[in-house]
Records
---
Amino acid sequence: MWLDLDLEGELCSAEAVATEDARIAALTEVFRTDSADVRVGIGDDAAVLADGLVLSVDVCVEGTHFRRDFGPLEVLARRAAVGALSDLAAMGACPRALLSSLVVPGTLSDSELLALHRGLAAAATEVGAAVVGGNLAAGGELSLTTTVVGRSTRPLRRCGAKVGDAVYLSGPPGDAGLGLLALLAGRSSAFADRWLWPRAHIEEGLSLRGVASACVDVSDGLLRDLHHLCAASGVGAEIELAAIPRGGGFEAEARALAQDPDEVLLGSGEAYVLLFTAPASLTWATRIGTVVSEPGVFVRDRSGRRIARSPRGFDHFASGELTPVRG
Amino acid sequence: MWLDLDLEGELCSAEAVATEDARIAALTEVFRTDSADVRVGIGDDAAVLADGLVLSVDVCVEGTHFRRDFGPLEVLARRAAVGALSDLAAMGACPRALLSSLVVPGTLSDSELLALHRGLAAAATEVGAAVVGGNLAAGGELSLTTTVVGRSTRPLRRCGAKVGDAVYLSGPPGDAGLGLLALLAGRSSAFADRWLWPRAHIEEGLSLRGVASACVDVSDGLLRDLHHLCAASGVGAEIELAAIPRGGGFEAEARALAQDPDEVLLGSGEAYVLLFTAPASLTWATRIGTVVSEPGVFVRDRSGRRIARSPRGFDHFASGELTPVRG
């Protein structure tokens, strides 16, 4: 949610990140509440109410987040809902219900509309939840807003990472982004399916309750989301580039797309894997680094150099269309 | 919510209404669930989960639902949230939390963004709820999606109206629509404020629990919403045109705008008053008619004629812009 107050990717400059921080501070002030019903408000992946109700909302806008020629509408709609469900995963919440709000151009046919709804239904069914309602309105551009409702008695937060904790990933953070680059280039690639068919790591999130000290999902890119987690926790992190998981052929595919594989790995988002810290030693997730006291994110490259990295990511907004830029 | 599956106003023809019915039937099938957690699913003003959680979502799209020159962004944003909160009122629910999802053009300034958020915060504060989270994304057109979360142990429904019940309104159903016509015409009018400053009838809804046999809010127009209520309840309704409440000077203002006052009264939406049926005699609401066994909605005019009326309303969609048409 609103830590992603970023106009989706308008974040490749330090100024933009500063703007984001200022915006979040302004929002936190505007929406300040002393309600005892609000356990976690603005500033995490999802809100949590007093009774453990977990709430989040996410939107996919045609032209900003996807193009229709990337895949069938059903697949794109499923993907939009997975993006929202991923916020529940990051909170260690169990999904209960989804609400869908679609804005559709008048040119969309009934069968296309049905395809969108089928995709939403599929995403809900996969995680054992139901689409309980929604809204449909006419507009100039297609957008899919999904609200997700879950429950968690012990929600994961971004703010609990401790110095010495290990930093983990529940899956490869760059494969989906590489797939998006392939789709943008019109290049047939196995990675395109990683973007088209993400999975919300619900089970992983549930298993982290009482285990992880802090958790986010990688929606904005590994660097940015790790910066979010570190800032919320008041710590820093050092990660090993070589330790970051990636699909087979990642480097070759990135080079074929004229991209720097490391930057795609560090900067591309929408992977919806979980990035978390834990004092414990876990075997099912990939350890990529350690929480340190020095604020910031430090990446150790293959030659052993330790480089402080700003929260750069992909900018598919600045030009008003889906145009990835290098970090 | 989805009974308003209408592409906002694409409903002035019998064919469009038939299409709407077919769409709802298709949706109900796509989103069919046997989850014990879903007490009220698609087909009412809001969904209700097993623990009395009430959920709804609504969207306002620039060009479809409003124009920026109608009023300050703060006022327009407050209004968008009130439209969503009105669904909670119709369910007799107490508001707990709001989530906001904004799609904004890149040209929107930070201060304009802040104004939108201030308006949302105002709407939430007025009903004792908090904005607990949201999302912000870039797009070509401004749209404001608001998810509302409430609670109700005894939710009001659309489906309980009984023959012989009285039909009531909690306020004037046409004043806001007349205000919209004035705004569209660029005419200064006291009614414009009725459109700009609606109020969700939360207290009224809460007081109807255990009293009303069926309830909806007038979001799509009196005729359409009464049709919805009657269809859900398997009954019909007969209402008196002269009994329908309206603001002082309504007829004169309508004529000045070259509109038929009766059609504005019957067909314009976004009033967010409650339309309900009850066996009891209530003094605080206005009785406008009676529930009958014959399916349909029948309007008795000033000359005593009883006319069957189709669920016609305003069409601010067909042309792709805000263009009201007569019912």
---
Amino acid sequence: MVGAGQLARMTHQAAIGLGQTLRILAAQRGDSAALVGADVVLGDYTSYEDLRLFARGCDVLTWDHEHVSGEHIRRLAADGVTALPGADALIFAQNKQRMRERVEELGFGVPDWACVSTVEDVEAFADKHSWPVVLKVVSGGYDGRGVWVIADSAATQSVVAQGKPLLVERYAPMTRELAAVVARSPYGQVAVWSVVETVQRDGICVEVLAPAPGLDEATALTAQHMAITLAGELGVVGVLAVELFATADGLLVNELAMRPHNSAHWTIEGSRTSQFEQHLRAVLDYPLGETRMTAPAVAMANVLGATSGGIDERLHHLMARWPAAKVHLYGKETRPGRKIGHVTVLGQDMTDARAAASAAATYLAGTEPS
Amino acid sequence: MVGAGQLARMTHQAAIGLGQTLRILAAQRGDSAALVGADVVLGDYTSYEDLRLFARGCDVLTWDHEHVSGEHIRRLAADGVTALPGADALIFAQNKQRMRERVEELGFGVPDWACVSTVEDVEAFADKHSWPVVLKVVSGGYDGRGVWVIADSAATQSVVAQGKPLLVERYAPMTRELAAVVARSPYGQVAVWSVVETVQRDGICVEVLAPAPGLDEATALTAQHMAITLAGELGVVGVLAVELFATADGLLVNELAMRPHNSAHWTIEGSRTSQFEQHLRAVLDYPLGETRMTAPAVAMANVLGATSGGIDERLHHLMARWPAAKVHLYGKETRPGRKIGHVTVLGQDMTDARAAASAAATYLAGTEPS
């Protein structure tokens, strides 16, 4: 796995059960997954040579992030490396313009959008759709970075001045955000999890509720159908997360990720097969595992770094207060707003599970005393 | 953790979630846990010097087997190392004579037994209790090794000739074997899992059924009470597994283990808190986690090595045939009868879960085609 963040860390946990050895390409010894992996190679994922040396002896190469260049991945494939998902699929998770074009071609909705390069372009779009608008870098953004909600021309100027390829999007009048997550094997087998609600704050996911509370069966099936269709049509192998806006006009695709994704961390305890195990099964071309939920309601809350220090004491108190909460810490230094872990709570009732997960995560972050 | 078998391997998986770093003392680089751990020290657990160097910088030292000498553990404690469970508790998992004496003192039953050193001693015991009898080494046995069912004087001779301290036990007319597994923290908090049935073949555990099918509530509570009492009275910190014989006269204690134990592997998926996470929480003095079951019926079957080679192909077929089966492979070379992994199946109904787990494990072992 190229990249050594928390996704690689949790993939390593799953690999152990399967009797597999996960080799991890890390930038530094202190990276989240490098702290716990047995086979860690230090290198630079932007260097073709580092990637090539890293891939030697691996059965398959896969990714913990979208930032490896498609050109490098194509060269690796030409050199005989099995790299999954491949460059032809990954481009749709790397390039927001290409993704939107393809999703529309396939007949699915996205928020109204346009490529823009000047303030005038943005103004013309806003004249048609009204302010505010959303500006996004075409590639390279993640976790709320590279995304700006823009109120007027003046605010547009500073973003355009960065000189990066941009697209503008209508500020979608959505009711909430959902995610449909699926895994697909090279053979074409797919397995989809329950559709979840993802709760965002300041552009960062703070909670995931599985299944999405009150979601009607027809919409859930539509979302799952979109994820399965996209996985097949885009040629994804591994986990595909489809972030969706629920709007009055139906579901719109927001973003795609082709790797284990925050919106499916709940599957570690909440599904018979976790997304990490499933991603490995998919890229290794094993049959996929059952995705049935293990409880009627599963709530996941991210631990967003607030207070540095004292986390061990807070963990003690959390465990005493919420003995059913499952804690996942990523071994990361606390920085304000940084995802340093997550908490999952299984329950009979979403209101209770959500309250416990949210309170436990907030408490662990040190944001406010409980 | 001293020892690098599958117990340390699965403890490492649990440690990752808790944000802990598990340092592992392995005899060889190829040991089960050494294949997946990030902090592996090669050394000899029988060497005090190796143990001392290994313990440096660890918050707490714990064990994946019972074979570390009590004398070494006492010296480590005197040198300021926190070693849990401590020597005073561990002796009851190391020495079958001391265990039986103490269990009887506490008012719990064990099968009739006596220390023996000659064929005449065994004959005298058999005259009183009838043949066959069971001979056991007082210390050092495990997984059916160091245990012999003896039909007559002639068979006794060869065991006695080995010159090891022995005890003889009545061949208990039991209805089945159960296990009650509990964790205890230094603070004295305890958390017990559902009582399970352990199914043995040739002295090796082949299946574990949780909860034990058809076990009446009173007997289950008695078994849990025995485990909790023993954990407290023996001063155990960490996981204590109490192996029990169910007999017409009630429950008799067979053996004790003070570490994660095969009879609780089902807790990885089958309980809100796995025995591996719980063992870490206990020895690190964190509050313990909830032990509620995640399904009405959980069956675990050991994969006992049979056919070497071809396991990857068999794993493919297993996953296709039983998509709900959770496979745990230990990274071990196959040897006949060696535990190389286990399979867990959760279900609504024990008959179905057991059939699936058993068939999947048998198939994976290559014992017979399915």
---
Amino acid sequence: MEQRLSIITLTVDDLARARAFYEALGWRVASETAASEIVCFTLNGIGFALYPRQRFREEMGIGDLSCEADGGVVLAFNVRSRDEVAKTLDEAVEAGGTLMKAAADVFWGGHSGHFRDPDGHIWEVAWNPFSPLDESGSFSWSAT
Amino acid sequence: MEQRLSIITLTVDDLARARAFYEALGWRVASETAASEIVCFTLNGIGFALYPRQRFREEMGIGDLSCEADGGVVLAFNVRSRDEVAKTLDEAVEAGGTLMKAAADVFWGGHSGHFRDPDGHIWEVAWNPFSPLDESGSFSWSAT
């Protein structure tokens, strides 16, 4: 697993309120999904996203994130091909992580899976055909 | 507040175990404080750190982070001068954030303060004279 990170997602109770806060700081949204269920900002070579907490819990099949070690923060490691997702999850498990959700096609059109590090922090490993990584591994949201 | 981020810190229950996990993934530590109380990795233009959860709680004067919205993840926004710390915290409060810890000189030799976003996620605003930002705002740990 290369020494880099693609996206930080903060899960939030009120998406409009969270978006208004970061916009009031002067940040500008990069793009949104058609359903407006995610708010995306491109930072310095990484993505930053706001996502409804309840929806994330349902997708993951987990309970109240506010009492888990991760607390509703998800780090993402994006890869360059579909096959790399399962391979990277295997690496993480070999290193001592715990598989949370196996590699699978996901509703937004990509392929991803999740693991937890030894303290419970959540990492998503994702192949996103709509926002390919650049040569250096930098990430930015593409327009949707 | 510029649209960028400097460091992601995961607070952990067992620093040696957490470090072993990320090293087993193939990541290499950039530098450590003399006291080895923080483990630092330089990623793609951002820093990534592992820090003892109990120590962070004591420094912040807060209770069990595992049951707070942030869950022991801290995002850092580093600034180019000492004066910018208080100014940036003011901006965050004006935008709807909550001051958590006012700007002050800190034990590691810098100057920093903390705010929470509307969902409770923690941001540190820091001036670190030992690891200055580059022109573009990219961050990397300097050798200590």
